[in-house]
Amino acid sequence: MKIKKLDMTNFRQFKGRQVLQFAADDIKNVTVIMGQNGAGKTGIFRAVLFALFGDIHLSQDADDAVIHLINENAMREAEKLPVISSVSLTFTHGNAEYTVKREIRGRFDGSNYMQQSADQQKCQLSISLVGEAPQVITDSTVVDQKIDAIIRREVREFFFFDAESLQILADLGDPKVRDSVKDGIYQLLQVQDLEYSRSLLKKMHERIQREVRSSAKDSQVQEYQQQLERVESDFADNQQQLVQISEEIDRAQVELDDKKQALQASSATRDLVAHIEQVQSSLNQQDQLLKQRQSNLATMIHQGAAQLFEAIIPDVRQQVDALRNSNNDNIPKYILEQSLEKGICALCGHSLAEDQQAQDHVRELLRLFKYSQSTSFLSSIDQGIAEITQKHGDFLVEQNKALSEYAADSQQYRRQQGDLDSMKNRLHATASEIKEFQGLSHSVDHISEDIGELKSNKANFEAQQVILKDKRAELNNELDKRAKINDQLTQKLQSAKIIGQMQDSLTTILQDYSDDSRLTLQERTLTLFKRLIAVKDQQLIDKVEISPNYQIKVYNQNNRELSNDLSQGEKQILSLSFIMALAQVSAEGRDEMAFPLFMDTPFARIDGDNRDRLIDVIPSLVQQWVLLLTDTEFTSAERDQFVDKDCVGATYQLSNLNGNTEIKAVDDIMLLELRGENVG
Q: What are residue 352's phi and psi, to 5 degrees?
């Protein structure tokens, strides 16, 4: 398949009619299209996919993004009137020339831009053969079928891709991405055709088995047939579970290898993390000790307040003695109150009721008793003086010791905190990464146990398969014996047996084909990578390994896994090698799988040496190379390399003014206006 011409009218940034003629020569097969960001490079890419498949969205678009294919300036100028946007793509395939045209209508109502839905597009396909009148097809379903026979919709992004697509290998660690890539590869290798054939055989086999049951008159034959159907159903389930377990083992093994590599790579980090944890634990204990010492010092402050009175104790003691000598409060207050209440002196038994003078005297003593409480107060003061005097020396010793210990512990805490901060600065890892480091060893053990259990289950299923095969053979033999008296039944049983064998054979072929294609794919990926990478980096990768679930890994000469060590540019070249290898594998024995290599912004992350290498090698590996380049990634160095290679057959420059882009054909790549060059 070679693209010859793209004809756009009012499509995206391209107002009016704009035409691109692609380089389709066998030698000069490179088309260079250069423009600033926003000038419409991706719009050209979008136009090709719209013409071929009617795509409105690209894979890079958000799912909920509103994409307008019709030029908005054209719609504003024709306000409230319909505007047609059309794209016509002419290409050759085999001995025929194809022109596919799609158009979509829309209008601007003064405030909103409206566009027809994808299912309202109009399309037309013209097929021309030499010496014959063109065949024109307007049925959209037939058009899609014809295009699908040349390039399947499901695999288009393997050959038309942007810079994000070149990151495909960087994302293969994501199981969803791996599954998506695997599905696309299966589509491209037409493995799904084998799957479809196998499902047809299964349906035929089930239909013939039902016919055998209905034709059999012998109850024993019916019983054998029912048993056989159960055995074959169990066998099919067993096979399916074996496939699932094998895939689980592959996925678990990939995860285990990743964890082991991370565990090995992070050994120094893990040691540092362990040391940090140890110091942190010690620091936490030290912090608790300091808090306890602070609490003890707070208690000492309470005790120390009383010690401040030690200097004035002699004066206090002298005043206490004077107060004690001046008081007559030897009689407790309750004795006086009890004597008055009972009318009898509680001390001597004298009757107060009969002696008014004595009774008045007791009342006078009770009135004056406010002075008599001083005795207990004076006793408390004496007790406090004695306690301060006795403990003063010990308190000073304990206080000095506590302060010294607190100062030493505080100094130790600050020193450990400094060590901890220093180690954390040396640890270039996030909190989540540290948590992952801590769990790596446990994960390795856990995954290893899971793999062991899965392998044990797989062995059990394989043993069951042998038993089921033997049982199936035994039942088939019994049915053969019973069916000899019935020719019609014999034929049906023979048909069922042959179809069953074909089913088994196709399953084996499917597995072998997938495995062989995968192994061939990894060999060609390595070969292409060594051709596409700069000479200085050709020894970087020694082996490419593609697992059954399409996890891709690369190794150096020491068998060390390198995926995490490759630069972004090297990963892009590896991705490109993988995609081109996939195209080569899929094309073996079939000429319908040759496509142009259509690349949007390919050089952004690739260094100069590798840019030169790609320019030197890719034109000889593909039928066409269409490059959509920004003015920052296409410099005089790339231009000169293309000139030396003499492989550019068409050159265009995109100029955007007020939202509209004009495609300007440039007669010679040397005339292309480059950023920073004086064009005057």
A: -80, -25
